[in-house]
Amino acid sequence: MCHADPVTFAPQTLPIIVRERGARPQMVKVSPTPPQPLNIKRDKGVTPLFAEVMIGTREEKIKIAVVTDDKNSPLAFQTIANVVNTTVKSQPYKGGDGKAYVRQWAQLTVPISAPDWSYNYTLTFMRPDPRDPDNAGSKDALYYTSATLLKGEITLNGKVYPAALHDTTSSGDFRGAEGATSNVELLIDRNGNNTFDQRGEQFDTALPFKINGQTYEIKNMNPSGTKFEIVASDKTAPEFPAPPDLRNGKPAPPLTLKTLKGKNVNFPGDYKGKKVLLYFFASWCGDCQRELPNLTRAYKQYHPKGVEILGISLDRPQQSAQVKNFLVAEKMEWAQFYDGKMFQTDPAYQYLIAEIPTLYLVDGDSGTILASGEDLLGAKLHKTLKLYTTTRP
User: Fold this and answer.
1) Distance CA 302, CA 277 (A)
2) pLDDT in tens, 221-271
3) Which CATH number fits domain 255-389: 3.30.160.340, 3.20.20.70, 3.40.30.10, 3.40.50.12780?
C-alpha cells in the first residue's frame, strides 16, 4: 500500500549553535599541510591549519577546504562550489581553569546538483579552542554536522504526523549509505510534543519500522530527500512505544531507585511539599564539572526553601568507589543514584537522556515538570528556582 502521491519534504536550516538529537559529529584533523592550493591569507605570526571535507551524492562529491590556525581565529573556507551562504560565529566560554576561551563556529551552504535536480546543503563546523587544557585530546580536531533538516508531514494508517529527515553523518545524500543501514533517519513526532525524541521517534530509512501494529518501509528516496514513498511491509520489525512527553506542565515519569546510601526512593512521590531537581550527570563529563559549582551554590541557597536534588550518575561500570569519592570532593550532599549502566540506566531511558548535564525541576505535590533545559543551567537556574520558591500573597 503506497501513498497515492510521494511524500514531499522541504529543507530547513538549523541554527548555527545547535546539536540535533541523533547527530553524529564527524571529525577531521587539522594540519599545517594544505590539502589543495589555497588563496586564503592569515595574519602574520600565526600558523595556518587546514582540513578537507567531502560531501555530495554517491555520483559526485564536493571538496571543501577549511582554514583555521594555532591562534584560534575564525574559520574560513575555499571550495570550487558556488557558495550560497557563509556564517561565522565565535562563542566565548569560561574553561574549567577559570580562563576565557572561544569555540569557533561556522556554517557553509553549497549547492549539490545533477542535470535533473539541485538542492542546497548546509554544514555546521565547530573548532574547539586548542588553548583550553580541557581540549588537549581534541586540539587537532575540527567537527562538522549537517545543518539541513528536511521537514514535512506523513500519514500512517490515517493519522498525520509531523516528520523530518536527518542526514546523521553529514554525507550530503539523503539516500544514505549503501548497506544494512543508511545513517539517514526518518523522525516522527509520535507524542505531539513538537520535537523529535531519540527513543521511539527515530528510524533508519534502510530498515522497516513498526508503528501501531503496522510495519512500513521507505522506498524511492531521491538524493535531496525531498520526495520518497512509505509503503506497507510484510517484514518483521520491533515496535517501540511512543516516548513520554517531557514538556513543562506534563507528568514526570516516576522512578523507583536505591541511593548509594541504600535508601529506597520513589520519585516524585516521596517529595511532597518539595521542588526537586532531577540531575543527570557523570564525574567524567567536563560540561557537568563546569556547571557543578553553580548547582552546589543553588542547592545551598534554595535547599532551606524546600528544594531537593536527586542525582542520577551515568558513570561507567564498577566505579562506585570513585563516584562516592567524587561526590564527597565536590560537596554533592543530596541523594545519589548509580548503577554503572551509563546512558543505558533505566532513569536515563525514561527521561530520553542523550547528553549531560540534563536537569528537570519537578513539583513534588503534583508530580509535574516545572522547568527543564536551558532554564536550569547557568544564571537561569537561580532565576528559575527563585520563581518557584517565592511565596506569593
Assistant:
1) 11
2) 999 998 899 999 999 999 988 999 999 999 999 999 999 999 999 999 999
3) 3.40.30.10
Beta bridge partners, 127, equal 104
Residue 38 has pLDDT above 80, yes or no: no
CA dihedral 37, 39, 40, 42 (to 10 degrees): 100
CA distances from 338 to 199, 278, 284, 292, 308 (A): 22, 13, 14, 17, 18
Residues 358-377: pLDDT tens digits?
Answer: 999 999 999 999 999 999 99
For the chain, the average pLDDT equals 90
In angstroms, how far apart are the furthest CA atoms of the chain? 70
Round to whole Å and give the CA distance between 390 and 21: 34
Please, which residues bridge with residue 184 across strands?
167
pLDDT at 40 over 80: no
Grid cell, residue 342, equals 551509563
Handedness of CA 230, 232, 238, 242 (dihedral sign): positive
Short-list 44, 36, 39, 41, CA closest to 71: 44
| Residue located via cell numbers 545524500 | 173
Q: What angle do CA 231, 122, 39 make, to 5 degrees?
A: 145
**pTM of the full structure:** 0.79
Phi, psi of 151 (to 5 degrees): -125, 150
DSSP designation for 34? -
Phi and psi for 158 in degrees, rounded to 5?
85, -5
Exposed e or buried b for every residue in 179-194, given b needs 16+ CB within 10 A? eeebbbbbbbbbbebe
Instruction: Return the ∠ at Cα 241 (arms to 309 and 18), rounded to 5°.
Output: 60
The total number of residues shown for the chain amounts to 393
Digit-coded pLDDT (tens) for 7-21: 888 888 888 776 555
pLDDT tens digit string along 271-297? Answer: 999 999 999 999 999 889 989 999 999
Query: For 156, left (φ over 0), alpha (ψ -120 to 50), or beta?
Result: beta
At residue 153, φ and ψ (nearest 5 deg) are -135, 150
* Domain range summary for the chain, segments of one domain joined by +: 17-146, 149-232, 255-389
Residue 150 near residue 174 (C-beta atoms within 8 A): yes
Instruction: Return the residue matching grid coordinates 548509580.
Output: 338
